[in-house]
Structure formats: structure tokens, C-alpha cells
Design goal:
Layout lengths: L4 E2 L10 H12 L10 H20 L7 E4 L2 H13 L7 E5 L4 H12 L4 E4 L9 H7 L4 E5 L13 H10 L3 E5 L11 H4 L3 E5 L10 E5 L25 H16 L3 H18 L8 E4 L9 E6 L4 H10 L2 E2 L15 H5 L4 H4 L2 E5 L6 H17 L1
Parallel strand pairs: 1-11, 3-4, 3-5, 5-6, 6-7
Antiparallel strand pairs: 2-8, 7-8, 9-10, 10-12
The protein binds pyridoxal-5'-phosphate.
Pyridoxal-5'-phosphate (PLP) binds next to helix 3.
Length: 380
């Protein structure tokens, strides 16, 4: 493969080498169905148990609170539809307007079948203010779903405070932690959340696998019906190799969580380089998200009178991979719902790009990205 600079880690991350190595034997040698009782299956059954325990330890949960799913989208769908279907249709669901489409579309679905749904607006930095939740929540709210950190602008939400308000009113709290887990230390007991969604490919695990944390005692209906896998709540033969890969990747990420500090340094250097190259914040570009509380390596900027799509393609020609927003929305060239929600001025909104750095990026990568970007902006 030709040399590229990959700076779209929020779309997906490179598979961790240890995760890849750990997965191999469950694809080729230890291929027994974990639900069978004979000796070939024992190893995959044990692998599932160990993976569940490892993942639970990484977020301070109990092993039987971890339910394997096919990824973030399924976890979000299950969390919202599964809890709503377990409570009365008169009860409301509250979500923010900047949630991932997996949450927003699930909310639209339950709205169509009769549940009231309330959408919370955000500040210009993409924060869901606790006062805002306090102003709309009632004792008739069944579920509040607020993401841990936004996938476009990286803003980290005040989850613990939002959980406190929700519980005071007897509502369950779900957080979509797909972008945060493995990058920020997460302790479900300390946060108090009832449900948390995660996806392996965002933290160095394989694609198509994830989990939903469901606090013991939470009322939720089964999402996939069939066999008795996942405590009878999510049927289907388990994707053993991917589950093993996910657990190894998560353990690796959590053990090396401090790497975030050096990624943040790269991010600072990037902005220094924009200044050195003559681009001024506020004049040529604006920086989106909360500067002092965002995911490490998340850079979301909007350039004045530019086209983010064109910038992305020009960088691609130079071997630099970045995006204009959420990966699942890359076919949709309109301004994203997140950029709209944070009120990016109209002269800037179309010129939005997202650069998401990882531990694999170097200072040299950042210099090249900044240099190419500045030259594209000046020439276009
Ligand atoms: N939630 C958020 C915040 C995401 O960023 C994504 C993926 O981009 C998802 C959910 C969906 O995850 P998956 O790709 O595993 O379905």
C-alpha cells in the first residue's frame, strides 16, 4: 500500500496488532460453537467468558452486565427501543439534537409508534446543559439518552450531572460512548449510567462488533429473538473471534489511556502550524467543539467561504485521509445536523472538516497535514 497519512480515526481505527493475533485461532482452530457441550466448544465458551470479564473490568461493570452486539448502531437501537418497549407508551424519551443517527433514528421510530420524544438543543460548543434537561424532564420521562462525546466535534458532555437529574425523576439514562470508550477512562458505577453503547472498531478492535452495558435490574426487552445467547436477551451465535479481538483492544486502550496526552500535544501543534502558515482563527476559520473538554486528537474546523468536500478530496490526492463529518454520513454532502445545531455561521458551515488523530500519527504527519491544508485554503 502506498504511504498515506490516516487522520480519520473517529471513522474507524486501525486494528490493534495484539487484537488481530488473539483473534486468529478462534477463526481457524478453535471454531466450535460456544453453545455446544463437547470439548471443541469449551475453548470458545471460555474465550467468551474471559472477554466478558475483561471488558467489564475495563469499565468497572459486572461481567453479566455486558451484552455483545454487532456494534454501536445495534447497541443504540437496542438501548432506546428495548427500554421504551418495556415501559408505558405514555412515558417520554429525551435525547439531544446532536446524537448519532443510530440514536436519532431510533427515537424517530419510537415516536412513530406513539412515544413522546423531546429533543434537547446544545450550546455553540455542543454542550447539553444540565439546566436544559432539568427544564424539560418530568416524572413521566422514561429514558434520557445523551452521548458521552460527540462524533463530529468531540465535545465531552457532563454525563454524571445529567444522570443525577434523570435519576431524580425516575428516568433511565443511556449514553452512546462509542467515540469515548478506550480514549477516556470510563467507570459506569461512578457515572451511574444504566446503559452504555460501545463499538470495537473505534478503539482498535474489529468492525461489526460492540457491546451494550445494561446495569443489572434494568427493564429492557430482547432485541433479537431466537436462541438463548446473551442471557436470553440477544439471540444469535456469538462472533467469538471478534469478541476476543474487541476485549484485547479495549484492555490495550485502557492500559495505555495516557497516550491521549501526547495526541493532544499533536493537536496543539496543528493549530500552531495554521497560525505560522498565516491562517487566523476567527477570520479564515473557526474551531468547533469545546476547546477545554473534547476527545484527544479531535479537530473540527470550518473555513470561511470554502467547501469541506473539495478540501477533503484535495487532501486525499496528497495521500491524507480526513473527513467532512460523520463517516456514515459521507454520502450526504449537506451540512451536518451537528454543525447546524451549534450554529456555525453560514459563511463557514460548508467549509467544515474533521481531522481525528491517533497514537499512530506523528509530528511529521501533523506538519504535512497543516502544510497541505494551508496551501489548499490559500489557493482555492
Ligand atoms: N455512535 C457514535 C457516536 C458513532 O460515532 C458511531 C459510528 O460512527 C456509531 C454510534 C455507530 O457505530 P457502528 O459503526 O459500530 O455501528
Amino acid at each position: 500500500m502506498k504511504n498515506i497519512i490516516y487522520a480519520d480515526n473517529a471513522a474507524t481505527a486501525k486494528l490493534n496488532k495484539k487484537a488481530y493475533e488473539a483473534m486468529q485461532c478462534y477463526l481457524v482452530e478453535e471454531y466450535g460453537n460456544p453453545s455446544q457441550a463437547y470439548s471443541l466448544s469449551r475453548s470458545s465458551k471460555y474465550a467468551l467468558k474471559y472477554a466478558r470479564e475483561t471488558i467489564a473490568k475495563c469499565i468497572n461493570a459486572e461481567p453479566d452486565e455486558i451484552y455483545f452486539t454487532s456494534g454501536g448502531t445495534e447497541s443504540d437501537n437496542w438501548a432506546i427501543k428495548g427500554t421504551a418497549l418495556a415501559f408505558d407508551r405514555k412515558k417520554a424519551v429525551i435525547a439531544s439534537v446532536i446524537e448519532h443517527h443510530a440514536v436519532l433514528r431510533s427515537c424517530e421510530f419510537i415516536e412513530r409508534i406513539g412515544y413522546p420524544v423531546v429533543y434537547l438543543g446544545v450550546t455553540q460548543e455542543g454542550i447539553i446543559k444540565p439546566e436544559k434537561l432539568e427544564s424539560v424532564i418530568t416524572d413521566n420521562t422514561g429514558l434520557v439518552s445523551i452521548m458521552y462525546a460527540n462524533n463530529e466535534i468531540g465535545t465531552i458532555e457532563p454525563i454524571k450531572e445529567l444522570v443525577g437529574i434523570s435519576h431524580k425523576h425516575g428516568a433511565l439514562f443511556h449514553t452512546d460512548a462509542v467515540q469515548a470508550i478506550g480514549h477516556l477512562a470510563i467507570d459506569v458505577k461512578e457515572l451511574g449510567v444504566d446503559l452504555l453503547s460501545a463499538s470495537a472498531h473505534k478503539f482498535g478492535g474489529p468492525k461489526g462488533i460492540g457491546f451494550l452495558y445494561i446495569k443489572n435490574g434494568t427493564d429492557i426487552v430482547s432485541y433479537l429473538n431466537g436462541g438463548s445467547q446473551e442471557h436470553g436477551l440477544r439471540a444469535g451465535t456469538e462472533n467469538v473471534a471478534s469478541i476476543v479481538g474487541m476485549s484485547v483492544a479495549l484492555e490495550e486502550s485502557v492500559t495505555n489511556i495516557s497516550v491521549g496526552t501526547s495526541i493532544t500535544e499533536l493537536e496543539k501543534e496543528f493549530f500552531n502550524l495554521l497560525t505560522v502558515n498565516g491562517l487566523e482563527e476567527g477570520r479564515e476559520y473557526i474551531r468547533n467543539g469545546k476547546k477545554d473538554a473534547h476527545l484527544p486528537g479531535f479537530i473540527n474546523i470550518s473555513f470561511k467561504d470554502k467547501d469541506g468536500e473539495a478540501i477533503m478530496h484535495r487532501l486525499d490526492l496528497k495521500g491524507i485521509m480526513i473527513s467532512t463529518g460523520a463517516a456514515c454520513d459521507s454520502v450526504n454532502t449537506q451540512v451536518s445536523h451537528v454543525i447546524k445545531a451549534i450554529n456555525v455561521p453560514s459563511a463557514f458551515e460548508k467549509g467544515t472538516i474533521r481531522i481525528s488523530l491517533s497514537k499512530y500519527n506523528t509530528i511529521q504527519d501533523v506538519k504535512e497535514i497543516a502544510q497541505c491544508l494551508c496551501s489548499i485554503i490559500k489557493k482555492s
